[in-house]
């Protein structure tokens, strides 16, 4: 999955916060819909003064118009500041549970390559592009305590991307069944 730069109506943000540069990214995977607003703030103080107002504007003008429950709970707001952010402010913003998930990053953005830099940052912070699942899978499958002829851990981890994550009753039943099967296998060891 990737996050792609999208054009949406965001003049309500641009007009209210003219010195903050906003961009909007959406997931390319329709099944796991993610929306991400990026606010490039000029300094620490502007982040401190405006983070809650920006969150509120997005909740009113964007989130309230979404019809999918999954989409309305899968919204991120990433603040990127060229200065170091006070750890107490970062904690306050990121742990605020109102409306959407918030991430605060101190990073200088090169204006000539801003789009690629932001996509890379979002890939690491939201999508986990820097995680290496293969090495975890290989280690789990070579552990002598769990290596069997039919390695159930390798099967389970290989099938993990196929497990439905939505809140439908059928999906919940599928997840429950797979967990029960894993527990049965683990108790045999």
From TrEMBL:
Pfam families: MComp1. This is Uncharacterized protein. The lineage of its organism: Bacteria, Pseudomonadati, Pseudomonadota, Gammaproteobacteria, Enterobacterales.
